[in-house]
Design a protein that fits this description.
Helix 1 packs parallel to helix 2 and helix 4 packs across helix 5. This protein has a 6-stranded parallel β-sheet with strand order 3-2-1-7-8-9, sandwiched between helices. Strands 4-6-5 form a 3-stranded mixed β-sheet. Helix 5 links the parallel strand 8 and strand 9. It is an alpha/beta fold. It contains 5 helices and 9 strands; from the N terminus they run βαβαββββαβαβαβ.
Length: 183
């Protein structure tokens, strides 16, 4: 049995570095599609000195290939259209100039990378992409490979998303995996 921590939406790497310090007996994987953040992410990981960290310069998504990343403040860039950014960030998302980024079918990657006996912790802060990703994971059964899911839900940032749609998915996820809020 392996102990694994997966950071979906690693951003600047600060949270990942904190988890590395807290869980030194784990193997770590991190996904971050925004190239502007890769230098900081790599520096944070190097500072930890942990020997088992794998970084992916890819977006967590529902298929392998390329996706459009809409850039805004580094805390708000998204793969989905229609996201409203809170005023605190002072920078709205640029929907006119999407950036093509590599993406990975997270379900398929997880099924290939972990075994059902592994202890898998996932932190998911992927700015709205959690909805299609988690729906796919429920559908194909890979959500059950996760032991604990730390998640920041972004339903309140998408005016077109009905509240009941969020609540139904959140309840379905909680039936399968231990969910802990993340923000």
């Amino acid at each position: 049995m392996r102990k694994i921590f997966i950071d979906c939406g690693a951003n600047l790497g600060r949270v990942l570095a904190d988890f590395i310090k807290t869980l030194p007996d784990h193997d770590f994987y991190a996904f971050e599609p925004n190239a502007e953040l890769h230098t900081s992410l790599r520096s944070e990981v190097e500072r930890t000195g942990h020997p088992h960290v794998t970084l992916y310069d890819k977006a967590v998504w529902t298929h392998d290939g390329t996706a459009s990343l809409y850039l805004g403040h580094h805390e708000s860039s998204t793969l989905l259209l229609g996201k409203r950014v809170p005023p605190v960030y002072d920078q709205q998302i640029d929907y006119d100039n999407p950036l093509p980024v590599p993406c990975i079918d997270f379900s398929a990657w997880l099924a290939h990378e972990v075994d059902s006996e592994d202890q898998v912790i996932v932190k998911m802060d992927i700015e709205g992409a959690e909805y299609p990703v988690l729906r796919k994971m429920i559908h194909d059964g890979t959500l059950g490979l996760i032991s604990v899911l730390y998640i920041e839900w972004h339903h309140d940032r998408f005016p077109e998303m009905p509240t009941h749609e969020h609540e139904e998915l959140a309840a379905a996820v909680a039936k399968i995996v231990e969910v802990r809020p993340w923000d």
